[in-house]
């Protein structure tokens, strides 16, 4: 049974030690980082930079506390993520969201290069076959995974597993394209975008949100067109279409969720045992992913911070806390009339997210049984 350390988001005393940054410092001391990381060892602090408009990410103040704790033991940390939009644009987004060298106290770098094709093929499993792991994640000896807990339209729940399954994997490989990247998870097999002209209202949101600008409406007849070989299968276009006129053929929700665990195992296979720890931030819990061009109000109240060396245990503990929490009024949860006692993320996204944990445990990434210790 793995140990998961936890500190509540509630502040009962007006002093720094009872603040969330103060509690995070204590959690990091409890973990005894020197047991995992060596002096002068490079350590990737993997997070999500957010998007233009999506600002409810892991706050820079928390990333800085992680960096400072690593520096205290002599390690050399850097903060990183993989390309979600064009690399230089993504660094500008990170900066706008407060993540930069000055704010976090460490270099902020793109793990798979500015073009998103700096990666290494790693064997995955029966679903994916192989996957393109960002070269910096592949090569670095150690990692701290800082995950913002939230919902997701495809995976239902987004935490540590999704953070490395999709966030440590490139969107595409230099030679095999999206078939070895995140797109392989979004559309297992030869997935294609299908456009229904009768449903389309020509709002052009799909064209505007495409990170590669590979969606166009042809002049004259206004016919939908996309560049199949360049498309990352990221799913943004299908998510923003208000009429369901753009769908992704070949996508299988259950297989997608299971493939996340498989990709996570492939990423973790590039590290030696005991070189990765996980911090889950149950704050500003969104109905949707941080890669969307906007952030809604939280659907569940802030719960706190969890830390563990077991990715499955920390995910199970995080989900258990969400299941006990009430949905917040004036949110997407109240829009769907979700009531106390309901599974908020399941009701919002209708995705069997628990399969992530079941598959991860089956693949040997950790145990769902855990002991929770509050700090």
Q: What do these coordinates show?
A:
The chain has 375 residues and is an alpha/beta fold. The chain folds into two domains: 2-182 and 253-374, Rossmann fold; 192-249, Alpha-Beta Plaits (2-Layer Sandwich), CATH 3.30.70. It has 14 helices and 16 strands. The protein has helices at residues 20-31, 60-72, 87-96, 101-104, 135-139, 160-165, 182-186, 205-209, 236-240, 253-268, 311-324, 332-335, 344-349, 354-362, and strands at residues 2-8, 42-46, 76-81, 108-110, 119-123, 130-134, 142-148, 150-152, 156-158, 192-195, 215-217, 224-226, 246-249, 276-282, 304-308, 370-374. The strands form five sheets. Strands 4-3-2-7-14-15-1-16 form an eight-stranded mixed beta sheet, sandwiched between helices. A two-stranded antiparallel ribbon has the order 5-6. It has a two-stranded antiparallel sheet with strand order 8-9. Strand 2, helix 2 and strand 3 form a beta-alpha-beta unit. Helix 1 (20-31) runs parallel beside helix 2 (60-72) and helix 10 crosses helix 14 (354-362). The chain is globular, with a radius of gyration of 20 Å. The mean pLDDT is 93.
């Amino acid at each position: 049974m793995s140990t998961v350390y936890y500190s509540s988001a509630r502040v009962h005393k007006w002093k720094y030690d009872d603040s969330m940054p103060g509690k995070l410092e204590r959690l990091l001391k409890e973990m005894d980082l020197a047991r995992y990381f060596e002096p002068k060892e490079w350590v990737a602090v993997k997070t999500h930079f957010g998007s233009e408009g999506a600002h409810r990410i892991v706050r820079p103040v928390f990333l800085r506390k992680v960096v400072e704790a690593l520096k205290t033991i002599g390690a050399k940390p850097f903060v990183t993520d993989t390309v979600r939009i064009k690399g230089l644009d993504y660094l500008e987004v990170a900066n706008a969201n407060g993540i930069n060298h000055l704010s976090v106290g460490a270099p902020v770098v793109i793990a798979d290069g500015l073009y998103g094709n700096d990666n290494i093929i790693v064997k995955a499993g029966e679903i994916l076959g192989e996957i393109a792991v960002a070269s910096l994640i592949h090569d670095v000896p150690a990692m701290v995974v800082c995950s913002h807990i939230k919902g997701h339209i495809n995976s239902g729940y987004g935490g540590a597993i999704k953070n490395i399954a999709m966030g440590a994997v490139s969107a595409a490989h230099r030679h095999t394209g999206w078939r070895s990247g995140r797109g392989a998870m979004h559309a297992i097999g030869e997935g294609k975008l299908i456009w229904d002209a009768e449903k389309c209202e020509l709002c052009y949101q799909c064209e505007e949100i495409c990170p590669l600008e590979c969606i166009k409406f042809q002049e004259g007849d206004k016919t939908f067109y996309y560049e199949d070989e360049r498309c990352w299968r990221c799913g943004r276009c299908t998510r923003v279409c208000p009429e369901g006129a753009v769908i992704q053929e070949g996508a299988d929700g259950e297989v997608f969720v299971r493939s996340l665990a498989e990709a996570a195992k492939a990423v973790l296979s590039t590290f030696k045992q005991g070189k990765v720890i996980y911090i889950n931030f149950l704050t500003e819990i969104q109905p949707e992913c941080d890669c969307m061009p906007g952030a809604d109000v939280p659907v569940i109240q802030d719960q706190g911070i969890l830390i563990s060396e077991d990715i499955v245990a920390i995910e199970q503990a995080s989900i258990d806390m969400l299941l006990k929490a009430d949905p917040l009024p004036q949110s997407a949860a109240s829009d769907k009339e979700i009531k106390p006692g309901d599974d908020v993320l399941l009701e919002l996204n209708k995705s069997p997210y628990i399969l992530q944990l079941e598959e991860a445990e089956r693949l040997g990434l950790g145990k769902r049984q855990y002991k929770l210790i509050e700090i």
